[in-house]
């Protein structure tokens, strides 16, 4: 589904590469977790894959398509849930979804029904006509998610979709993503929640300093490191306990 070859990114004026000569294949139907400490390059990688930023070198394909030649097709094929809310605060949840859905060519009864179904599934039907600026973090995260899947993408990229939300919202989001995956959506997500990733992901890659340190199923990784009881132990073994502050 996704084939990444020697992908690198060095931001303008930066001293180091944020992603360096990265090779990775992500199969159809996976829930793939990109894990790593602060500044590891997770957002940079997912932003390149969702064409929000341009690689410095290397290449990747999604379903055999490159961005250079298939921008329109890829826009329909993928969904992007960025870390920042991509919503209009003064519009209601319904108005936001209607506007963003129409950007993907959805209209009329079909769009209305899709919005209503999603609001219901993600527990927001009662708040459909309230302004998004009045919502809690968890509610905004759920609207952000809905906005990116109205066009039923085959691949969904999510950058920390459960950051800053309460346990209930997190649970609803993860259950919903699992449901989408069962219906055939490939999911690529970044997270700092290792417990969540361990049960949610079919495969993970631990990234540090722009390179993949290890990849595999969570079970394989925990089995491989003798003293590890869980994915967090594997993570700390590989990335160390030093703080990774960066500016
Ligand atoms: N726009 C930018 N310009 C310059 N450097 C950047 C830019 N964005 C990110 N970086 C640098 O690239 C490196 C990787 O950052 P990135 O945000 O991809 O990491 P991350 O793994 O997503 O971190 P976090 O977990 O903190 O979100 C960091 O050193 C960061 O400072």
Automatic annotation (TrEMBL):
UniProt entry tagged with the keyword Nucleotide-binding: yes
User: ABC transporter domain spans which residues?
Assistant: 2-234
Q: Which Pfam families match?
A: ABC_tran
* SMART domains reported in the protein's UniProt record: AAA
Per UniProt, which keywords does this protein have? ATP-binding, Nucleotide-binding
Q: Does the keyword Cell cycle apply?
A: no
GO MF term set? ATP binding
**What protein name is recorded for this chain?**
ABC transporter ATP-binding protein
Which species is listed as the source?
Arenibacter antarcticus
- Taxonomic lineage: Bacteria, Pseudomonadati, Bacteroidota, Flavobacteriia, Flavobacteriales
